[in-house]
Amino acid sequence: MKLTISGLTRSYKHKLAVDDVTAELTPGVYGLIGPNGAGKTTLMRMLADVLLPSKGQICMNGEDIRTLDDRYRDQIGYLPQDCGFYSHFTAERFLRYMASLKGIKKVEAEAQIGELLQLVNLSGERKQRIGRFSGGMKRRLGIAQALLGDPKLLILDEPTAGLDPKERVRFRNLLSDISGERIVILSTHIITDIEYIAKEVLVLRQGKLVKQAKPDLILKELEGKVWHVTVSSEKVDELERHYTVGNLLRRGTEIEARLISDQQPTADAALQSPRLEDIYLYYFGETGGDDR
Questions:
Q1: Angstrom distance (rounded) from CA 246 to CA 28
Q2: Can you tell me the distance from the alpha carbon of 246 to that of 285, in angstroms, rounded to the nearest whole number?
Q3: Which residues form the ABC transporter domain (predicted)?
Q4: Low-confidence spans in the chain with pLDDT less than 70
Q5: How many Cβ atoms sit within 10 Å of the Cβ of residue 115?
Q6: Cα 52 to Cα 81: distance, rounded to the nearest angstrom
Q7: In terms of Cα–Cα distance, which of 148, 183, 138, 172 is closest to 44?
Q8: What gap in Å lies between CA 54 and CA 217, rounded to an integer?
Q9: Which residue in 35, 67, 74, 230 has its CB near the most CB atoms, within 10 A?
Q10: Quick one: pLDDT at residue 287?
Q11: Helix (H, G, I), strand (E, B), or coil: what is residue 234?
């Protein structure tokens, strides 16, 4: 299976939200990272066929998704950033409703619903109304609906938002288990979500795809650029003005800092082994904004 994205572009009035993105994806987990406003949500909505591109093409196995139409949508599992729920529905009823929308036969749907509720640790709450769910429980239910129908393309926009650390680990393991025969695209601000499971990382900045590579290859690019320094608390502001600073740890009157720099920032700065979270700092620094 192959998903081919060619020159994909989407503009809103005078703003380019996604700018000429081209990529090729095969089965495995892809981590999509970028600051708010980078265009991640817009890109994922186009891939999920809920938003038309201004230009460009998406093909599944060489065939345009416009031609495939329902045959493409039948292969998609999509979890949007803001997943709407009917608060008076129970978890069980909601999944039955979603299964009917996806055209899944009743007997098959019932079997899947039981398995998926167990998978996302909601079996005990299957008859509870969604309006009583916590944010994390709603997110888990959203993940379950995305998996209905055993989709070959799974598009997940910030799926672990609201999940506690234990739930995030469980979810990462789940994605790793199911990714063998399907394409999983995972957008996240939590770099540890993709650190051990991503086949490749896609770096999106200002609507452009600036990097698509295996995590270890990107980490090699950061060798010699990650530093540990110790400075007095009075010099922290100066450090932050000149460098991209990650972690800060106060030890008495001194501050230990981890920072990104192409050159040695101070005479006593010591090189550190790069981590995946350093990729985010290297490409984006302190950038931010409203996501689309």
A1: 30
A2: 9
A3: 3-231
A4: 286-292
A5: 12
A6: 18
A7: 183
A8: 32
A9: 35
A10: 43
A11: helix
Give yes or no for a contact between 160 and 180, defined as CB atoms under 8 angstroms apart: no
Is 186:31 a contact under the CB 8 Å cutoff?
yes
| Tokens found for residue 259 | 């920072």
**pLDDT digit string (tens) for 139-182?**
899 999 999 999 999 999 988 887 888 888 888 888 888 888 89
With contact defined as beta carbons under 8 Å apart, do 290 and 37 qualify?
yes
Strand segments (E) across the chain: 3-12, 15-25, 28-33, 55-60, 63-64, 76-79, 153-157, 183-187, 200-205, 208-213, 226-232, 244-251, 254-260, 270-271
Identity of the residue numbered 145: Q
Q: Is the dihedral of CA 184, 4, 214, 28 positive or negative?
A: positive
Cα–Cα dist 181/173, whole Å = 15
Q: Which residues contact 15 (CB under 8 A, 6 or more apart)?
A: none
Number of H helices, E strands in the chain: 10, 14
| Positive or negative torsion for Cα 227, 232, 233, 239 | negative
Q: Compute CA distances 128 → 37, 90, 136, whole Å.
A: 36, 5, 15
Tell me how far apart the alpha carbons of residues 292 and 106 are, in angstroms, rounded to a whole number: 36
Residues written for the chain = 292
Identify residue 79 by its one-letter amino acid code: L
CA 280 to chain centroid, in Å, comes to 13
* Spatial distance between the Cα atoms of 53 and 51, rounded to a whole number of angstroms: 7
DSSP letter string, 41-54 = HHHHHHHTTSS--S
Of 224, 219, 226, residue with least CA distance to 198:
219
